[in-house]
Amino acid sequence: MKIEKIELRHVKLELVAPFVTSMGVETHEEHIIVKVDSEGITGWGESVAEGTPFYSYETVQTAWHVLKEFIIPEILGKDIANVDEAIALGARVRGHMMAKAGLESALWDLFAKQKNISLSKMLEGTRDRIDVGVSIGIQPSAEILLKKIEGYLKEGYKRIKIKIAPGEDIEFVKAIRKEFPDILLQVDANSAYSLDDINLFKQMDDYNLLLIEQPLSYDDIFDHSKLQKELKTAICLDESIHSLADARAAIELNSCKIINIKPGRVGGFTESKLIHDYCAAHNIPVWHGGMLESGIGRAGNVALASLPNFTLPGDISASKRYYKEDIVHPAFEVEPDGTMIVPTKPGIGVEVIQDRLDNVTVFKEAFKM
Ligand code: OSB
Ligand code: MG
Q1: For residue 163, how far is its CA from the centre of ligand 2 (angstroms)?
Q2: Distance from C-alpha of 166 to C-alpha of 282, rounded to nearest angstrom
Q3: CA atoms of 14 and 323, how far apart (whole Å)
Q4: Are 297 and 233 in a shared domain?
Q5: Per-residue model confidence as pLDDT tens digits over 244-296
Q6: Which of 27, 71, 312, 316 shows the smallest number of beta carbons within 10 Å?
Q7: In this structure, what CATH number is given to the domain that contains residue 296?
Q8: Domain count within the chain
Q9: Residue range 170-195: average pLDDT?
């Protein structure tokens, strides 16, 4: 397909409630929406680079720079037969996986629409519904946290994840287990700890957690292998995994027993599938992480999570749990049984609501051949 036009939009969406993690407080989410036009078809993608470099070194500004100056010029005007060809054209750029994933995901949508099949089908997904969980930010007190959890469980969510930070960790876990002894429960540290905290994690071993997500440094694989050796509970890596090569290193070193896949973090759906397949072959379950995506990114996440080795519930929650109004129709909802329906229409399978997208757009720029 001849890539005739690529449009970038810096968007800023207001969250329904501030999201508190060990990395800080977020009240708004800033991302880049990518629109690709080719032969009368439009593909949509989302780059999950954020306004701040606190989760990843990438930001909206670095992703914009890399897309505008280095990746878009390689792809614009080219006649490409598939997504792999586009990836090869941008491969000289090292890193910047979130920038790459924004455009890559739009191309997957474009090619799926051209073939008139759903993105799930194009990715070789096998489920028509996915199991979903919810990621809860750090709350001011255990009482407030328990109330939130109760509400989410009533809505159907199959798994609860809480964010933790030093001093706001084991007491929350104990309080949850007292009230909800059997729920699927996991914690996410976002790299707030070091090997000196090993006793804290050994205590956590007594609370039947599904996993402990990214306890140590955001760029570490080796220290996690030392920690995993001392724990019964599975470590799951998020921040440390940017590629199949990282996943392979982590698995060969026994640094984790579970991997969180976020397409934005690994350069897109293509690399996500490679990691998914590699993990499947090595009996490593994967689950789909989230970056507070708008409906555009969320639609891609739901499609990817329909692949068979996504056996644990993902951080893919209802649109309304993040934003008052999503920018796509229909908004994503959680079914009473804790599942989300995988769209079956062509491509991402949801319509972008143009005036809502315009309302959240801070800046846009179009590149034409
Ligand atoms: O570490 O998984 C994370 C959100 C932003 C950045 C990092 C993370 C998260 C979440 C939210 O946990 C997941 C979601 O989108 O529901
Ligand atoms: Mg995480």
Answers
A1: 8
A2: 33
A3: 7
A4: yes
A5: 999 999 999 999 999 999 999 999 999 999 999 999 999 999 999 999 999 99
A6: 27
A7: 3.20.20.120
A8: 2
A9: 98
Q: Comparing C-alpha atoms, which of 23, 62, 6, 38 is closest to residue 366? A: 6
Counting from 1 in the atom list of ligand 1, the atom nearest the Cα of 190 is 1
Q: Are residues 193 and 77 in the same domain?
A: no
What's the pLDDT score for residue 317?
98
- Rounded to whole angstroms, the Cα distance separating 280 from 310 reads 9
CA 289–ligand 2 middle distance (angstroms): 7
Cα(178)–Cα(287) distance, rounded to whole angstroms?
26
Task: Give me the domain span that covers residue 80.
Answer: 5-116+350-368
Whether 125 and 210 share a structural domain: yes
Question: Within this chain, do residues 330 and 358 fall inside the same structural domain, yes or no?
Answer: no
Q: How do residues 109-118 score in pLDDT, each as one tens digit?
A: 999 999 999 9
pLDDT, position 319: 98
- CA 136 / ligand 1 centre spacing (Å): 9
Pull the structure tokens for residue 272: 């996500």
Alpha helices in 195-310 (DSSP H): 198-204, 222-230, 244-252, 269-281, 295-304
**Binding-site residues, ligand 1, Cβ < 6 A:** 55, 135, 188, 190, 238, 289-292, 315, 317
Instruction: Say if residue 102 is in the same domain as residue 236.
Output: no
